[in-house]
């Protein structure tokens, strides 16, 4: 199921593949503890995500640059987006072919999605958009997805795209079933990682640098367990403070989705996955005919402005011709519209509860604490309702199951959002990159105040990008690789005074160091 594009619905919640994290009780979400799926396999969350390939809006990155993240503007990151992709429609000014990660045309299509495109034009004035990563993000259309185009189409995670090829290298060792316990330091320089396999503890020593890529939850947690964070809290847990940096774990952001569910009078995915025979027929349809829900149900979307005076979309909608869950679909033909604010203002944090890495940290997502986020949550529910009442969609709607026609006022809809809202699996920001001293990493992804330590994952994003976060996370990896290689080229290897002859030992060390540097660049 890790390879089946829609297999994530079977995997999420399975502790073999999912960390099955949960937030602390959310005060603005009816004190609920929301589930936070995180990938527990090679490839991380890219092995269990919805496969949607979105770069974000160019203004997101120009905004990062303006905030002091020099070198992260749109023109700076575009070459890395181009390098990573193999774009099915072909190369262009904004796309590339031949990269490790396929951006394929979504084939899991349903005729109700076409009707929603008509409804978007009728109600919102939206045009069709065949490329949300093109010149304009606004509009309605099908996403590009990270699915292979081979004989049998399969999910392409970060591990499939990159690690499969890299496994052949003699200088790569992959250790699975291991828990990183802490970063080891020699003074203020990171010198390696301490990790455990079962009851046995090991050390991995770095000859040059340590690059931390554990994600938005576990990267800050590992820094904190290693003595990098808010000093008073670390001391209270018995952790020796290496670098007092209160921003570690702060700045947590996520997309919170509202859900509108409708009972419709035409067959949907619910009807195709309710019984074992229909599931087998669906698998056959996907692998042989290359259509249907085998490819997932998050294939059609809209980028919408909730106010016409906005210069770019502020919400993203997903149209799912299904309701309930893959494991327990609703017993009726259902359709779900999920939507979220692209750039939320609410901020949360990750807090360690123990010095033991096996004890999961506390997640305070702090959803809907910002009034503007509350307003947009209500607006998305109203837009969904308007779409369902359009001439294009209304003939197919039998009933609005959620939130239900009895809820009409803003307060009622906001309360519904608090009671039912869910994560869209896009947490970022807990090792914030910036040009200021309060940031966790600088624009070259180096942890401030320390040597030999980088962070390269979604945790470094200063703000959420406008869309799904997998593609930008891979871009960060591409850019990090370039940064580290460039830093190695600039790093002085050995200094030899010109007025004295070098000793044989120093010459040997110099030659070996240069060979090591060349091998790293290769």
CA radius of gyration is 24 Å
Overall mean pLDDT stands at 90
Tally of DSSP helical segments: 13
Cα shape: globular
CATH domain class name of the largest domain:
Alpha Beta
Termini gap: 35 Å
Strand content: 15-25%
CATH A-level architecture of the largest domain = 3-Layer(bba) Sandwich
How many beta strands in the DSSP annotation?
Answer: 21
Main structural class: alpha+beta
How many strands, what sense, and barrel or not for the largest sheet?
Answer: 7 strands, antiparallel
Named CATH topology of the largest domain: FAD/NAD(P)-binding domain
Instruction: Give the oligomeric state.
Output: single chain
Summed up, the domain count is 3
Helix content percent band: 25-40%
Topology of this structure?
Layout: H1 8-11, E1 21-22, E2 35-36, H2 58-66, H3 74-84, E3 85-87, E4 101-105, H4 111-124, E5 139-142, E6 144-145, H5 158-166, E7 179-186, E8 189-197, E9 200-205, E10 210-212, H6 215-225, E11 228-229, H7 231-236, E12 243-244, E13 256-264, H8 269-272, H9 276-289, E14 300-304, E15 315-320, E16 334-341, E17 349-351, E18 362-364, H10 371-388, E19 397-402, H11 410-420, E20 422-423, E21 453-455, H12 470-490, H13 504-521
Parallel strand pairs: 3-4, 10-21, 11-12
Antiparallel strand pairs: 1-2, 4-6, 5-14, 7-8, 8-9, 13-16, 13-19, 13-20, 14-15, 15-16, 17-18
Protein traits:
globular; 3 domains; 522 residues; three-stranded mixed sheet; Cholesterol Oxidase, domain 2; FAD/NAD(P)-binding domain; seven-stranded antiparallel sheet
Report on this model:
The chain is an alpha+beta fold and 522 residues long. The protein folds into three domains: 49-105 and 161-253 and 347-361 and 427-491, FAD/NAD(P)-binding domain; 107-142 and 256-341 and 368-420, Cholesterol Oxidase, domain 2 (2-Layer Sandwich), CATH 3.30.410; 496-522. Helix content is 29%, strand content 18%. The protein contains 13 helices and 21 strands. The protein has helices at 8-11, 58-66, 74-84, 111-124, 158-166, 215-225, 231-236, 269-272, 276-289, 371-388, 410-420, 470-490, 504-521; strands at residues 21-22, 35-36, 85-87, 101-105, 139-142, 144-145, 179-186, 189-197, 200-205, 210-212, 228-229, 243-244, 256-264, 300-304, 315-320, 334-341, 349-351, 362-364, 397-402, 422-423, 453-455. The strands form seven sheets. Strands 5, 13, 14, 15, 16, 19 and 20 form a seven-stranded antiparallel β-sheet that branches. Strands 3-4-6 form a three-stranded mixed β-sheet. The longest helix has 21 residues, at 470-490. It is globular, with a radius of gyration of 24 Å. It starts with 7 loop residues before the first helix and ends with a helix. Residues 493-522 have low confidence and may be disordered.
């Amino acid at each position: 199921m890790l390879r089946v594009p829609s297999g994530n619905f079977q995997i999420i919640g399975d502790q073999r593949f999912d960390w099955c994290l949960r937030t602390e009780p959310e005060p603005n979400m009816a004190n609920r503890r929301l589930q936070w799926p995180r990938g527990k396999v090679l490839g991380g969350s890219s092995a269990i995500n919805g496969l949607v390939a979105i770069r974000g809006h160019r203004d997101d990155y120009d905004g990062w640059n303006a905030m002091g993240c020099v070198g992260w503007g749109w023109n700076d990151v575009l070459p890395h987006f181009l390098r990573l992709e193999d774009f099915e429609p072909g190369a262009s000014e904004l796309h590339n072919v031949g990269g490790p990660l396929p951006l394929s045309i979504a084939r899991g299509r349903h005729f109700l999605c076409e009707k929603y495109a008509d409804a978007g034009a009728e109600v919102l004035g939206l045009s069709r958009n065949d490329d949300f990563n093109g010149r304009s993000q606004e509009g309605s259309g099908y996403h590009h997805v990270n699915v292979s185009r081979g004989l049998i189409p399969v999910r392409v995670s970060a591990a499939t795209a990159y690690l499969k090829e890299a496994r052949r290298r003699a200088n790569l060792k992959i250790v699975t079933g291991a828990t990183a316990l802490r970063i080891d330091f020699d003074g203020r320089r990171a010198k390696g990682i301490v990790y455990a396999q079962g009851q046995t503890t090991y050390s991995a020593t770095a000859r040059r640098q340590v690059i931390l890529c554990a994600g938005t939850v576990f990267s800050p947690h590992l820094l904190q367990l290693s003595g990098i964070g808010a000093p008073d809290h670390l001391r209270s847990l018995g952790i020796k403070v290496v670098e007092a940096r209160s921003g570690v774990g702060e700045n947590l952001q996520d997309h919170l989705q509202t859900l509108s569910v409708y009972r419709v009078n035409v067959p949907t995915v619910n009807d195709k996955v309710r019984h074992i025979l229909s599931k087998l027929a669906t698998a056959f349809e996907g692998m042989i005919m290359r259509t249907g829900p085998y490819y997932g149900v998050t294939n059609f979307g809209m980028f919408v402005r909730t106010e016409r005076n906005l210069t770019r979309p502020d919400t993203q909608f997903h149209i799912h011709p299904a309701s309930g869950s893959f494991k327990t679909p609703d017993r009726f033909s259902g359709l779900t519209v999920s939507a979220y604010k692209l750039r939320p203002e609410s901020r949360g944090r990750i807090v360690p509860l123990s010095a033991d890495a096996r004890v999961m940290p506390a997640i305070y997502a702090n959803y809907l604490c910002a009034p503007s986020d509350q307003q947009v949550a209500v607006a998305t529910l109203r837009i969904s309702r308007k779409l369902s009442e359009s001439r294009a969609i209304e003939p197919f709607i039998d009933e609005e199951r959620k939130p239900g026609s009895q809820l009409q006022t803003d307060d009622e809809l906001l309360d519904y959002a608090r009671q039912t809202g869910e994560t869209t699996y896009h947490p970022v920001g807990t090792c914030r990159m910036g040009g200021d001293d309060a940031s966790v990493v600088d624009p070259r992804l180096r942890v401030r105040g320390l040597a030999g330590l980088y962070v390269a994952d979604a945790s470094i994003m200063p703000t959420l990008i406008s869309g799904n976060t997998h593609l930008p996370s891979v871009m960060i990896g591409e850019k990090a690789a370039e940064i580290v290689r460039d830093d190695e080229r600039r790093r002085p290897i050995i200094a030899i005074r010109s007025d004295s002859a070098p000793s044989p030992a120093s010459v040997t060390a110099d030659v070996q160091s240069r060979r090591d540097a060349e091998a790293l660049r290769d």
